[in-house]
Amino acid sequence: MTRIAIAGAAGRMGRTLIELCQASDTLSLAAAVERPGAPQVGLDPGVLVGSQPAGCVIVDDLAAVLDDFDVLIDFTLPESTLRNVATCRAAGKRMVIGTTGLGADAAQVRAAGDDVAIVFAPNMSVGVNLCFRLIELAARALGDDFDVEIVEAHHRHKIDAPSGTAVRMGEIVAETLGRDLATCAVYGREGRTGPRDSRTIGFETIRAGEIVGDHTVLFAGAGERVEITHRAADRSTFAHGALRAAAWVAARDRGVFDMQDVLGLRD
Ligand code: NAD
Which of 47, 80, 166, 246 registers the highest number of CB atoms within 10 A of its CB? Predict the structure, then answer.
């Protein structure tokens, strides 16, 4: 049994992870962490989600449970994730990181890969990771003659934009076409924008209701267009992927990996 700790246990992803971990035959829920002051601190995480007790309580300090787990699954906030990376790196603990919006601080995650094994992926769903490959294929085949626009929609609670998944999709297109996303991305448009610059990659963000996560990459050329779309209907798709990543990373010693590695999608 691989012993799992969940950071952000009371969050939307945390609760789904607790439920699925409790139902697993190969993973056991051994520890759970929330932010200091969260009302769920001190509760059994199993009881929190209405399933059987896990036999541990939610703590507000990862250092207090370091001996109890093998892999930390972290879906929290960038500042909390970065603290957890430093703690796990020092303690030699493996991690699965789903938190998005780390920006340039992602370099700290990559550096930690020198000492511990980490799966770090903005989207853990199998379908999205397949789309990453399809997008690369499309960009390679269609080239600079097609305009590329990325449209994403998420629930009203999401606090970063564009989504980490949309950014990754943009990076894949940019890398495949030999562009730098930092200089070719255009985020939303308003007013007298002038005609489209063909070497840009456009991003549009929708925030509404309880949309779990939709992404479309649109390639538009002369007389035709291709759209690659993924729609998540349920948060459990990300949680299943995160647990699969936890089982996979438990057998690695060091390095930073993504879901392409976990799913065997890399050439
Ligand atoms: P959420 O706000 O529902 O949950 C986050 C939880 O983290 C909250 O309960 C919060 O109290 C807790 N938290 C904050 N600071 C903490 C700390 N210092 N220690 C421990 N816990 C702390 O958010 P969510 O919808 O569950 O999403 C969390 C993150 O995961 C976001 O960055 C989101 O974009 C990302 N996400 C990634 C994927 C993926 O597949 N990679 C899928 C869904 C969401």
Answer: 246
Q: Which two tokens stand for residue 87?
A: 């703690």
Query: Which atom of ligand 1 is the closest one to the Cα of 9?
Result: 9
d(CA 233, CA 209): 13
| Tens-binned pLDDT, residue by residue, of the chain (267 aa) | 999 999 999 999 999 999 999 999 999 999 999 999 999 999 999 999 999 999 999 999 999 999 999 999 999 999 999 999 999 999 999 999 999 999 999 999 999 999 999 999 999 999 999 999 999 999 999 999 999 999 999 999 999 999 999 999 999 999 999 999 999 999 999 999 999 999 999 999 999 999 999 999 999 999 999 999 999 999 999 999 999 999 999 999 999 999 999 999 887
| CB of 13 shorter than 6 A to ligand 1 | yes
Catalytic pick among 93, 157, 158, 215: 158
CATH number for the region 2-120+235-262 comes to 3.40.50.720
Rounded to two decimals, what is the model's pTM? 0.90
CATH for the 126-232 domain, from 3.30.360.10, 3.40.50.1100, 3.90.230.10, 3.40.710.10 = 3.30.360.10
Residue 217's H or E segment, with its range, is strand 213-221
How far, in Å, is the centroid of ligand 1 from the Cα of 10? 9
* Whether the CB of 121 sits within 6 Å of ligand 1: yes
